[in-house]
Design goal:
By secondary structure, the protein is of the alpha/beta class. The chain is built from 10 helices and 12 strands. It has a single domain, classed as LigB-like (Protocatechuate 4,5-dioxygenase, Chain B, 3-Layer(aba) Sandwich).
């Protein structure tokens, strides 16, 4: 693997979320503050999150619930697993840049850990495919939440998961855990839920997907897509997060919040669903 000595420029600042640093910081702080979560609702340590990735005006409130769980509990390494909405060959995609740029500053990429992960994947004929100046929004859109929740530096391990093959994702998750198990890490799975159905039908589909996440069942998350019983564009990322968290000793998943685009637009004829969740290891 080779990395450029530059930052990935943001293709979505100013559109998917505001490009003004002060406004962005205030908006993210507002989402975090509005997420009312009691510390006694959960037991153990949060090792994984599920967070939506639409424009902040649509899904920011629901994302705020995920990051409120880890607010003021910074980690040294954040693994963000997301889909890749563009065409490229390969099952597991990562960046070739040394950092990601947002209006709130740069987030350094964990190059050494990515190189180690690529070597692990290579043992079974897999690899990380690097992209340059990609247009993918689903990974980047999580970064301002982390930057404001912690207001401290952390290293980023970005992987965009294109495959929904259970065997490939299980192998990837095992390899990922082996390279991060000695580190202070947080896993984040970026996904939206159903897309462009009437509100009542979307809510039924989304309830099924959230049920499978709450059951801590990555295989069921993937099967929902093939069965047509529920959908999530980041199903592969969610499954990878759950399997990796299981390796880390996680036992419980909690659904934190659910909303749809109708909450911000008022249009119930064609909505997108958003859910947030957290996964915990025992205390």
């Amino acid at each position: 693997m080779e990395f450029r000595n530059d930052a990935r420029p943001s293709p979505i600042a100013g559109t998917w979320y505001t490009g003004d640093p002060k406004t962005l910081a205030a908006q993210i702080d507002g989402y975090l503050e509005a997420a009312k979560i009691s510390d006694d609702e959960f037991s153990g340590r949060a090792v994984g999150l599920v967070s939506p990735h639409a424009g902040h005006r649509y899904s920011g409130r629901t994302a705020g619930y995920a990051y409120r769980v880890v607010k003021d509990a910074p980690r040294e390494l954040v693994v963000i697993l997301s889909p890749f909405h563009h065409h490229v060959s390969g099952d597991f995609i990562t960046t070739s840049h040394a950092s990601y740029q947002t209006p709130l500053g740069k987030v350094k990429v964990a190059e050494d850990t990515l190189i180690e992960l690529d070597k692990k994947l290579g043992e079974q004929g897999h690899s990380l495919i690097q992209v340059t100046k990609d247009e993918e929004h689903s990974l980047e859109i999580q970064l301002p939440f982390l930057q404001r929740a912690w207001n401290t530096e952390f290293a980023l391990l970005p992987v965009m998961v294109r495959t929904h093959d259970p065997g490939k994702i299980q192998f990837f998750s095992q390899a990922l855990y082996e390279v991060i198990k000695g580190k202070d890490f947080l896993l984040v799975a970026s996904t939206d839920l159903s897309h462009f159905y009437p509100l009542d039908y979307a809510e039924a589909l989304d309830a099924e997907m959230l049920k499978r996440i709450k059951a801590f069942d990555p295989e069921a998350v993937l099967k929902a897509e093939t069965e047509g019983s529920a959908s999530a564009c980041g199903a592969g990322a969610v499954a990878a997060m759950l399997w990796t968290a299981r390796h880390a000793g996680a036992e419980h998943a909690y659904i934190l919040n659910y909303s749809t685009s109708a909450d911000s637009t008022g249009d119930v004829s064609s909505v997108v669903g958003y859910g947030s969740a957290a996964v915990f290891t025992p205390a």
